[in-house]
């Protein structure tokens, strides 16, 4: 038995086949980066995205040479699409989750209605698109995140759905994920008839008639939750960090629904990890606004590296940073500080600081930020996190993984698949058709590529001093609180 997974990231798409032994085959991928017509604006062609998804899925099925039992969909969260229900044509460009054009809308919403949503959520993006294309709210339109849009396209318009892992980070759902929030929808003038039906993350949804054999769509899941499941972190306390463009820590809490969707004092916030048989499982998430972006900066802007992979060899040319500390705040700081006005900084430079020291300092800075996330999550859980599983592009770098272990003092397990999202969506789709009986099977399927134990320490006190000096660099941005 096998399932097909369509996996949509921020800058590319993948489709592959997940077999019953939790291996991925016939992976097809294509880069499809969003557009940024002006600073702070991030948008993409939703029709093109769907077309590419169908092409890649069809190619993977062709390579498979036979049918699959189901289709799972993992997607970037909060990116927002509005389309005509009758024609299935998007009304305009979709807005990516990174898009910041609605910052002032978020400020106004909080001031006038006491409703706190962030510009990287779907809520104000949906209103902006409606204001542009249906100001009177009279058209028959559908609003959805990328999972909703793909399910619609794959089913030929038969289903308009989302799952709680995507809906709960939209800013439009009640804090307990029980239903769409009438107060938020009313304040933003978003007709509930335009919103998708919220269904389980795993379960039969409809037929993917756009694909050969019309296999059933059986899973919808947000990318970070898919990575959580793909790394078998399905029991309370099991924790993963994805070190991609940004960094996301997720862990299952095992508790009930939160009273608020807002951030805790430690800077984490609640998420729906998944939903099965009508039961929602909750977790918490901590965010690093820039992770791999810092290595890309070394390559593309400073020219210190030929490519990101070279960061390991260059950093290995020195045994330590020689006192250099880098704060990876190119886009501000997320958990636990949430300071949008903080900026990246290099401290401790001397005449002896060279290319290896700077590159190692960047890797260690991201590792320190990962440790910040672990410590914040542990404080909110009220229990220790003794080990952490990692995926994402930076997890391929041995120097970086060692730095995470030494900064955090924890054992680090590197995922077999660095894009664990594909496997996570595969597990969910497979459960819906009997390939796996449940999450006990998922927990038992974990296989680490390698395990790294701490063999030293990094100076956390010096790190905290560096962070304090990098904060409030742009006071007006530091004053923003979503």
Could you describe the 3D structure shown?
The protein has helices spanning 46-64, 103-113, 123-133, 146-154, 164-167, 182-188, 223-230, 292-300, 310-315, 355-381, 398-408, 420-432, 439-444, 460-470, 475-478; strands spanning 2-8, 12-19, 24-31, 43-44, 71-75, 80-84, 94-95, 141-145, 161-162, 197-198, 202-207, 216-222, 239-243, 247-252, 269-276, 279-288, 325-327, 345-347, 387-391, 411-415, 448-452. By secondary structure, the protein is an alpha/beta fold. It has a domain at 2-224: Nucleotidyltransferase, domain 5 (2-Layer Sandwich). Strand 19, helix 11 (398-408) and strand 20 form a beta-alpha-beta unit. Helix 7 crosses helix 12. It starts with a strand and ends with a helix.
Which helices and strands, and how do they pair?
Elements (H helix, E strand, L loop, with lengths): L1 E7 L3 E8 L4 E8 L11 E2 L1 H19 L6 E5 L4 E5 L9 E2 L7 H11 L9 H11 L7 E5 H9 L6 E2 L1 H4 L14 H7 L8 E2 L3 E6 L8 E7 H8 L8 E5 L3 E6 L16 E8 L2 E10 L3 H9 L9 H6 L9 E3 L17 E3 L7 H27 L5 E5 L6 H11 L2 E5 L4 H13 L6 H6 L3 E5 L7 H11 L4 H4 L4
Parallel strand pairs: 1-5, 5-12, 9-10, 13-19, 19-20
Antiparallel strand pairs: 1-2, 2-3, 4-7, 6-8, 11-12, 13-14, 14-16, 15-16, 17-18, 20-21
Helix pairs in contact: 1-4, 7-12, 8-10, 10-11
- Unreliable spans: none
Percent of residues in beta strands: 15-25%
CATH homology group of the domain at 2-224: ATPase, nucleotide binding domain
- Assembly form of the protein: single chain
Mean pLDDT: 96
Specify the overall morphology: globular
Largest sheet, spatial ordering of strands: 15-16-14-13-19-20-21
Strand tally: 21
- SS field, number of helical segments: 15
CATH architecture of the domain at 2-224: 2-Layer Sandwich
Distance between the termini: 45 Å
Cα-based radius of gyration, to the nearest Å:
22 Å
Helix content: 25-40%
Question: What name is given to the CATH topology of the domain at 2-224?
Answer: Nucleotidyltransferase, domain 5
Given helix and strand content, the structural type is: alpha/beta
For the report, how would you describe the main beta sheet? Answer: 7 strands, mixed
| CATH class label of the domain at 2-224 | Alpha Beta
């Amino acid at each position: 038995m096998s399932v097909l997974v369509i996996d949509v990231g921020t800058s590319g798409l993948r489709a592959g086949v997940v077999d019953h032994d939790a291996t991925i085959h016939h992976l097809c991928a294509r880069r499809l980066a969003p557009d940024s017509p002006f600073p702070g604006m991030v948008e993409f062609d939703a029709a093109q995205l769907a077309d590419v998804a169908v092409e890649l899925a069809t190619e993977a099925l062709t390579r498979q040479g036979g049918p699959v039992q189901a289709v799972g969909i993992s997607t970037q969260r909060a990116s927002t699409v509005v389309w005509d229900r009758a024609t299935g044509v998007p009304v305009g460009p979709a807005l990516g989750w990174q898009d910041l054009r609605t910052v002032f809308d978020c400020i106004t919403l909080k001031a006038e209605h006491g409703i706190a949503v962030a510009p990287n959520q779907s809520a104000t993006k949906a209103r902006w698109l409606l204001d542009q294309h249906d100001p009177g709210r009279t058209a028959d339109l559908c609003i959805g995140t990328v999972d909703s849009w793909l399910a619609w396209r794959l089913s030929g318009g038969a289903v308009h759905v989302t799952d709680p892992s995507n809906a709960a980070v939209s800013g439009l759902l009640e804090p307990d994920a029980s239903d769409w929030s009438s107060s938020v929808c009313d304040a933003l003038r978003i007709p509930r008839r335009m919103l998708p039906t919220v269904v389980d993350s795993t379960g039969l949804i409809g037929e993917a008639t756009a694909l050969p054999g019309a296999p059933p769509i059986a899973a919808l899941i947000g990318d970070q939750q898919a990575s959580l499941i793909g790394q078998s972190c399905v029991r309370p306390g099991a924790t993963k960090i994805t070190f991609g463009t940004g960094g996301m820590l997720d862990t299952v809490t095992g508790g009930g629904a939160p009273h608020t969707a807002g951030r805790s004092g430690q800077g984490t916030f609640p998420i729906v990890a998944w939903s099965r048989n009508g039961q929602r499982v909750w977790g918490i998430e901590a965010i690093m606004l820039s992770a791999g972006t810092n290595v890309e900066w070394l390559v593309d802007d400073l020219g210190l590296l030929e490519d990101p992979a070279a960061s390991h060899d260059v950093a290995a040319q020195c045994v330590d940073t020689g006192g250099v500390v880098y704060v990876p705040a190119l886009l501000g700081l997320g958990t636990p500080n949430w300071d949008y006005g903080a900026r990246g900084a290099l401290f401790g430079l001397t005449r002896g600081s060279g290319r290896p020291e700077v590159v190692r300092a960047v890797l260690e800075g991201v590792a320190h930020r990962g440790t910040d996330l672990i410590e914040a999550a542990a404080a909110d859980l009220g229990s220790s996190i003794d080990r952490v599983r990692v995926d994402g592009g930076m997890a391929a770098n041995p120097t970086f993984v060692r730095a995470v272990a030494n900064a955090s003092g924890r054992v680090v397990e590197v995922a077999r698949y660095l894009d664990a999202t594909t496997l996570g969506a595969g597990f969910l789709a497979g459960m819906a058709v009997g390939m796996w009986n449940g999450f006990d099977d998922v927990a038992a399927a974990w296989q680490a590529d390698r395990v790294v134990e701490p063999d030293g320490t990094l100076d956390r006190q010096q790190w905290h001093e560096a962070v304090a000096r990098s904060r409030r660099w742009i006071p007006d941005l530091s004053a923003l609180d979503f």
